[in-house]
Amino acid sequence: MRVLVIGANGDVGKNIVKNIKNTEDHEPVAMVRKEEQLGYFNDLGVETVLADLEGDFEKAFNQIDAVIFAAGSGPDTGPDKTIIIDQEGAIEAADLAVKNGVKHFILLSSMGADQPKGASKGKHYLYAKHRADLYLTSTTLNYTIVRPGALTDEPGNGKVNLQESGTEFGEIPREDVASVLVHLLAKKEAKGKIYELVSGSTKVADIL
Ligand SMILES: NC(=O)c1ccc[n+]([C@@H]2O[C@H](COP(=O)([O-])OP(=O)(O)OC[C@H]3O[C@@H](n4cnc5c(N)ncnc54)[C@H](OP(=O)(O)O)[C@@H]3O)[C@@H](O)[C@H]2O)c1
Q1: pLDDT tens readout for residues 172-203
Q2: Residues lining ligand 1, judged by CB closer than 6 Å?
Q3: Cβ 66 vs Cβ 1: under 8 Å
């Protein structure tokens, strides 16, 4: 499958692209928003598309079979950008995926997005993730939503805990999140599912 990675230049996104590149069945298309970000992907031999979630990004969906949305406005921007990128960017991406016949849409969300009202901090962020998740589930897309705990930059150890609910909050390396998202691309059982994800004891290759 040709897999569009939205947020490809991010810390999780770069790992997603590398993992897809290492599969036999899929090829990545890295969506980045700045010219100077293209070189990194060109050096990897990865196809790129220059597009911004705040502009018209439909061209990124040319002949795309699956999408992994790993973009986010990050912690250094105000709530306005969180709404524009994490919420509306994901919603528009879902609409474009429907319009362009995408077969599987994987959304990187966050633990806590199911119950933003009860959050003690980062409420606007969790509401944005919540709205994007909810919208995606209302579309006709085959979706998978993954809600990780706190992301770390520790090297991944390839062992995770992925379950549909009841997960105790915890951490997980970005590398392991990327491995899980790419692993789910091939999993029919993951379609129409929402998962929570933290580090654990199950090898990524053995989940689902
Ligand atoms: N931090 C946590 O503990 C945590 C926990 C759960 C979930 N998450 C979520 O996980 C996701 C990925 O995290 P991360 O650490 O990889 O974040 P990251 O490194 O900040 O990556 C986010 C990517 O989104 C891109 N982006 C932002 N605005 C864009 C726009 N207008 N158009 C196109 N791309 C845009 C950024 O582009 P540039 O490279 O050009 O800036 C960046 O590459 C985020 O959605 C985050 O909310 C984080």
Answers
A1: 999 999 999 999 998 999 999 999 999 999 99
A2: 7, 9-13, 33-34, 52-54, 70-74, 85-86, 108, 110, 148, 150-151, 174
A3: yes
